[in-house]
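Sequence only, no structure available. Ideas?
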Amino acid sequence: MRCPFCKNTETQVIDSRVSDEGESIRRRRRCTECNNRFTTYENIVLRMPQIIKSNGPREEFKDEKLRTGFMRALHRRPVSANLVDESINRVKNRLLASGDREVNSRRIGELVMKELHRLDNVAYIRFASVYRDFQDADDFQDAIKEVQKIPGSKQRMTD
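Reply:
I predicted one. C-alpha cells follow.
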C-alpha cells in the first residue's frame, strides 16, 4: 500500500477490524518512511458476467432487468416478495458461481424459467410464452403439459 503523504511503498498495518457487518475490513497503517498514519478499507468486489444478447451485442448485467422479468411473470400472482428475492438471488449466485466472464442471455432465461417453475406454474407459462415466442394455442398447451408432467409441480405461494 502506497503512503498518501510521501508515496512510499512500505507501510505497516497497525490494526485491522471487520466493519460493515463483515463486508469490509478497516486497516490502520503507518508509513515506515514518514511515520504518518492513514486508514484503508478492503471490500469484496464481485463482478457479474457480461450478457451476450441473442442478436450479438454485449451489455452489463442489470439487476433491474432480472427483477422486471420476474415481476412481469408474477403480476397478480400470490407469491411473496421474500420468495421472489430468494429466486433472484439464486439466479445471480449461479451466474457468479459459473466463473464465466460472459453469459448468453438464453442461459439467464433458462435459470429464470427454472425459478419461476418452482414459484408458480402460471408465472412460468407467462414467461415461457414470451421467452420461447409462442405462436399459437398449441404452444401454450405444450407448456401446460410440460408443467403437469413434471413431478412436484405444486406451487409454492407463501413463505
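The helical segments are 63-73, 81-98, 105-119, 121-131, 137-149.
Hope that gets you unstuck.
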